[in-house]
Design goal:
Two copies of one chain form a homodimer. The first copy, chain A, is an alpha/beta fold and 221 residues long. Chain A is built from nine helices and five strands. Chain A has one domain: Rossmann fold, CATH 3.40.50. The first copy, chain A, has a five-stranded parallel sheet with strand order 3-2-1-4-5, with helices on both faces. The longest helix of chain A is centred in the middle third of the chain and has 16 residues. Chain A is globular. The interface between A and B is large, with 46 and 46 residues.
Chain lengths: 221, 221
């Protein structure tokens, strides 16, 4: 049984990715990051999802002593709709180097346990804004693996798998429903309150996805 | 004054790199990692060196819950001379993904403070063994920066600088002596005891470097 590391945030994209990897027959090791995100409620969601699947999981605690992102710094207000994203700029919630850090840890973990793949739930709507969600970034990171690791040098490079990369939110939800993803356990809202705020960028895209499918988000039930 | 992030381990290579970056006119921000290394004495050395230069510094604490390297796991014995390295294989002290993780943090820091460069003290003797010390790895990581960061997308990519990459240990020491590096404050021994063990791989190459120059290592005085 091939092993895979799955980056699990607790959102619906990464949950669907985990279920996808399991359905493909991988033995999955979930990696969850506690990096000072304002919506740290997602960490509890990630743990619940990992437990539900019976996969092993690890929480990596990272302290980034520098700020500069609305996702880390509560002093920066979160615009209801990210005007940066709408105008084709990089969203306010961009965290410098975030996915690069996550993938680096996943890579270290993968080499240590002999995993052949790393799954990450980046998707089309993400990569419209976030540079570290784009196919060309994952291609570049693959080259880092083939040149900069023991696995790569020994010609057994670890593959970055992005099964959602060309999917819209609605398509991801559709796939998740087919795979039995417990969307009730996922968390997307950037505010991380008791209930989804229904105003932030992340709520907006989640709601839009469910609506396009004519479905109701179980978190809103 | 251009800013630079300098990866500072406390060894003589990174100390020389810091002095080199300063001599080139950069305002340097030192990044020190506490990653569970067995020779954590080097962290104290790194702090002393940073303070000596008057540069700001940050210690990033990382817990890698997976093992598999003699540098992290004291249960794995350190061979006096690394037979893996001598036979052209990857040394026992290879830590999966280590420099990739370090560079990822440096990159995040660089984007946050608007630094133009990241300095790392990788050199010729290192890259004979460690994949993450080789020029092709740094080239690949540069592509990660240009594709996967805000700085890269906005065509202001952050440069990875490896001024020692083609130098031998003796050449690095020679450069360090010219730049006034306080070698007395540096630490290289993997065992991290009160005095250098003079037996491990790291002591071996350090001693060899000083001997080739007809100099005495101030740590052995």
């Amino acid at each position: 049984m091939n092993k895979a590391i799955v980056l699990l945030s607790g959102g619906l994209d990464s949950a669907t990715t985990l279920y996808f990897a399991k359905a493909k027959g991988f033995k999955c090791y979930c990696l969850i990051f506690d990096y000072g995100q304002r919506h740290n409620r997602e960490i509890a969601s990630a743990k619940k999802i990992a437990k539900k699947t019976g996969c092993s999981w690890q929480v990596i605690k990272i302290k980034l002593p520098w700020k500069g992102s609305a996702l880390l710094d509560k002093k920066i207000s979160l615009p209801p709709v990210d005007t940066n994203r709408l105008s084709g700029k990089i969203p306010f919630t961009y965290v410098p180097g975030r996915n690069i850090i996550f993938l680096s840890f996943a890579l270290s973990f993968a080499e240590s346990v002999g995993a052949k793949s790393i799954f990450i739930g980046a998707h089309a709507q993400d990569y419209s804004g976030y540079p570290d969600c784009r196919p060309e970034f994952y291609q570049a990171f693959s080259k880092v693996i083939s040149t900069g690791t023991k696995a790569g040098v020994e010609k057994k490079p670890i593959k970055i798998e992005t099964p959602l990369i060309h999917k819209s939110k609605a398509q991801i939800i559709k796939l998740g429903l087919r795979l039995g993803v417990p969307f009730k356990l996922t968390w997307s809202c950037y505010h991380g309150g008791a209930k989804p705020c229904q105003k932030c960028d992340s709520c907006y895209f989640r709601n839009k996805g469910f609506k396009e499918l004519g479905k109701i988000d179980p978190l809103l039930n």
